[in-house]
Request: fold
Amino acid sequence: MAAKTARNEGGPLRPLSSLANNLPALLLRLGLLSLLDAWGIWLVYRFIFDGAGTLAAALAIVLLFINIVFLRGAAMPLRWIAPGLAFMLLLHIYPVLFTAYTAFTNYGDGHLIEKPLAIRQLEAQQYLPENAQVFTWTGFRSADGQYALWLQGKDGVAYFAKPGEPFLSPGQVLGLGPLDENNIPTTIAGYKRLGKKELFKALADLQGQKFGPEIGAVQVKSLKEAAQLQQRYVYDAAADAMIDQSTGKVYASVDGTFTAADGDILRPGFPTSVGFLNFKRIFTSPQLRGPFISIFVWTFSYAFFSVLLTFALGLFLALVLNTEDLPWRRPMRVLLIVPYALPAFISVLIWRGMFNPILGIIGTTWNPGWFTDALWAKIGILIVNLWLGFPYMFLITTGALQAIPRDIYEAAIVDGANGFNQFWRITLPLLLISVGPLLVGSFAFNFNNFTIIDLYNRGGPPMSGTPTPAGHTDILISYTYRLAFAGGRGADYGLASAIAILIFIVVAAITLFNFRYTGMLEEVSENV
Amino acid sequence: MSSSTRIASLRRQKRISIAWRMAVSFLAIAFALLPVIYIFSASINPASSIASRNLIPAGANFDHYVQILKNTDGNTPFLLWMRNSLFVSLTTSVLVVSITSFAAYAFSRFRFRGRQPLLKTILLAQVFPNILAIVALFLILRQLGQYYPIVGIDSLGGLILIYMGGAMGFNTWLMKGFFDSIPRDLDESAHMDGASSMQTFLYIILPLVRPILVVIFILTFIGTYGDYLLARVMLKDINHFTLAVGLSLFVSGRFSQNWGPFAAGALMAAIPTLILFYFVQDQLQSGLTVGAVKG
Reply:
């Protein structure tokens, strides 16, 4: 051990290869790195532009990390780890941190897009003012059906306007034909002037379009007249408010929504920090607290009973089969772990079919309400999970039983212990020492076992009188899912994230305790 | 009591013991196999909506298999789901194995500043299951999808990307442990002969650690193949579904009328993992019990 540690001190095992030997490799590396950087920086820029500032920051940090690692010779070993770390940072650690942040915001329906985007969308809205500049217009149509307008202002100035493009003065128009007595061109290259008949047909189309640049576009008002639109809302950064140009009304930014003094609001809103509001709602709002407490209790009891039942059955079977002179022991073991080899999503659906009151082998003979009664639905889930989980427990306890030394039992028999005593005083305590951490792990797994809950009955039967979509068999993770993604009651990412944070805390506590117990973390320092 | 009667009584005790053990085992096996037998029976039952009391129902045939493979009703592109599932699981597994084997090699063979904190961080990050961050993952994909639809919401690429986020963790640990068991003299002599670290890794170490690569590959495959939550959140279009999401549709629709085709589909969907399980069962048992027999 001492020799081993001595070798581990200091630097890499061999000198890093010198620069000169690897010039082509270096150039290749720099080339690939600059390509990655160019792409990454563009993406960071886009993220910032679209208001995804935190994602931009996360990506920038990862880029920086990759650059340091691939440019500094001393960081050479990290190059091997960089791809994995990049994925982990961007798609595991960042999402977790972002969830923590979201828990303190009102992210959700009505507050979906980031503030800069929301402002941009609002500022893109236009209106037709009373005193708008008015033009008389003449319609043109290109060969591929695109419309364009020839506009004449009161002051005699003329423009040619296509949708989404800047106005053209007559001098800028290519292929302008001769003007008629009203100063309207008879022909324009690529376009056909619309006659009276065609005009009537096209009017509806024309009125639905905006001609000229995005801001300050011209819209057809009547057969003769077109008027210039104006931007409706202007953002006042100093006051953090939107001002309606048509009425002069001021919409101040309140909790992620631009709200006027009379309560009028502008859509879309944007997410904003709400402090501990989401957590406060969970614990104080009577409609939320009811389902939350009941779901919280059920999550714990579900995970606890799942582990207890599967462990009890698995251990019992392991003991039953733990006799060497039992015939067909090996084939029986293989048959017993069949449920473990089926993907869980299939097994749960099969059981759902078996409980089905119309066609199921169980449901048709005995149906106390496998899906409709709150208690029996829970019992059904525990039965299904017992079937899914006992083979795992059977496997690990079989292994652990074989590791218990025989001579302990022999000594116990000499001391007069019967089978009952042997089990409770020797087998179980010794087994729990070795299998205990796996039981804790199983508890943590079932704590977030979304698959079985959602596939069994979508969390149902539903609870009545709750403002959120909650069911009697929902556990915290499926409740979170329903808050965020399902149900017609609107997505509430903020609240969902707050609950996810609470689950994080529970699972982290369980797992850290488990690491403590197994000494997994200590192993890092002892192990090579 | 004479010794012969004692032996006879012991024998009898033993016979009783064997008898009740066999009885219990048969009961347990019946419990374990009941759903499988039942679903098989349903899959060959021509009457789709009625539970049969016989194992082999009257007029048994394989019409349901044909029906779901041919997608006769138009809403169950089973083969497409199967292809999606296999594509996602295989791609993810290959990527996970390659990325983690590089990382595990570095952790096992190089000594560098920050190595231990990094190893601990990787393990601790796993404490926070990424399924709890589904909202954030959803939003990331939505953002990315605006520029690259191939990794956006409702894309298999995006789903693979998310699975990759959870790739490091225990996989790196498991692998590093195995790498540590390969003697370093091998690397050192390769280095003496002028091999670079990359060459040593590719030609000397990788062939030796193949067992752990296979185990990680299969565990990742089984994990992604069976994932329901992430796939359910990220995929929207029925043609992009994986098997887990696709087969769950049977629950919402008129289950009783789809029962036969579902049974056929479920059995076929189980084939890939059953094959893998068959190959990996011994490694799996030892791998699962490593923690158990260590104490």
